[in-house]
Design a protein that fits this description.
With 362 residues, this protein is of the alpha/beta class. The chain has 14 helices and nine strands. InterPro entries: Aldolase_TIM (IPR013785), DNA_rSAM_put (IPR023874), rSAM (IPR007197), rSAM_sf (IPR058240), RuvA_2-like (IPR010994).
Length: 362
């Protein structure tokens, strides 16, 4: 169990037996996470489970995973299962094993959350069956293009094995959401993952890909995993990717997903090589457009309020519903981070500070 839980490091989660997902209502859901096996026929150049690498191998049968999941679930330690795997021969065979786990759990009355990370190249008929049992399922894109993908995942084809599966997943999710009588089960949105720093693709390219996936595949949640070199892999001598880069990409993805921004809106915040710097991208965007500020909290549109650092979607909607606003204390009660928002807003024509002084300008 320990070996297989640690083996999911490269599947969106940290190294422990429990990871977290979030429901449509924002509620955090604890999941037991495991691989079926860390023995893999794939040769992904960054992965500790790649074929031929000398490491401790372990496997659990579908029946064993079902038993463990039930044990945790009955103790209220988890609310569901996150299941991935090394490639067991091929994608079809792997998906059949994953499907068996989900089928066993549901047939035994399990009502918890099931998240499946399927393999590139999983056949459509198996995705259709998985959709009948799982709340959420998806395939990892890992990178931004066919050229990059062929370099780090040589056993699969980016367009047919990954992008086609993202399209099928989108269609199956939409179908499930329209079905009557799906038992009230949560249907999770399309998601995928990018390995950050395994190759030299700039953040600009990653953000553009995320934006495209949101439009084309209705991607809701991109995950980012910082690359760490693994001994006895082709990339063992490559440098680690700093954790802050992962964090800044997450912040940027939230601005795309929840604030209505597009990839081109970030063109002014990259360095000369197309990489984000270690600073809040929303603050950088605001500072790069001083002509937009200050905004009057009592007359600004929702979109204008969303551009203000310290004001998120919840706070912006509360402001619009509660106007007129007469003080900063009112904004604080609505969840606004005043220390960040102050240089960019005015209340009844008054400002507490201006942007130039906030930025240290004379």
């Amino acid at each position: 169990m320990k070996v297989l839980s640690e083996g999911t490091k490269y599947d969106s989660c940290n190294q422990s037996a429990v990871c977290h997902a979030f429901g449509p209502d924002g509620r955090c859901i604890q999941l037991y996470k495991t691989l079926l096996t860390n023995s893999c026929s794939g040769e992904c150049s960054y992965c500790p489970n790649r074929c031929g690498r000398n490491s401790v191998k372990a496997s659990l049968t579908p029946e064993e995973i079902t038993k463990i999941t039930w044990s945790f679930y009955r103790k209220n330690a988890i609310e569901g299962l996150f299941l991935s795997s090394g490639v067991i021969g091929d994608a079809e065979n792997t998906a059949e094993k994953q499907l068996e786990v989900a089928r066993l759990l549901r047939n035994q009355g399990f009502t918890g959350y099931i998240h499946m990370r399927v393999m590139p190249g999983t056949p459509l008929y198996l995705l259709e069956e998985i959709a009948d049992y799982a709340n959420k399922f998806g395939v990892n894109a890992e990178t931004t293009s066919s050229v990059n993908y062929s370099e780090i995942c040589p056993n699969f084809d980016y367009k047919s094995d990954v992008l086609q599966r993202l399209k099928w997943t989108r269609d199956l999710i939409n179908k499930k959401r329209k079905e009557v009588g799906y038992g009230g089960r949560i249907v999770g949105a399309n998601d995928t993952q990018f390995v950050v720093g395994a190759l030299s693709e700039p953040d600009r390219e990653i953000v553009q890909t995320v934006d495209k996936f949101m439009d084309k595949y209705e991607l809701r949640r991109p995950y980012f995993m910082s690359f760490d070199p693994v001994p006895s892999t082709p990339l063992e001598n490559n440098p680690s990717s700093p954790r802050w880069r992962e964090i800044r990409l997450y912040q940027t993805s939230y601005l795309l997903k929840d604030y209505g921004l597009k990839a081109f809106d970030f063109d002014m915040v990259y360095d000369d090589n197309g990489f984000l710097i270690d600073s809040d991208p929303k603050m950088l965007l605001a500072q790069s457009h001083p002509e937009r500020f200050p905004v009057n909290v009592n007359s600004a549109s929702l979109n204008e309020l969303l551009l203000v650092p310290g004001i998120g979607p919840v706070g912006a909607n509360r402001i619009v519903r509660s106007r007129p606003i007469s003080s900063e204390k009112e904004l604080m009660r609505m969840g606004v981070v005043i220390s960040r928002a102050r240089p960019f807003i005015e209340i009844n024509g008054k400002r507490q500070t201006n942007l130039a002084s906030f930025m240290g300008a004379s």
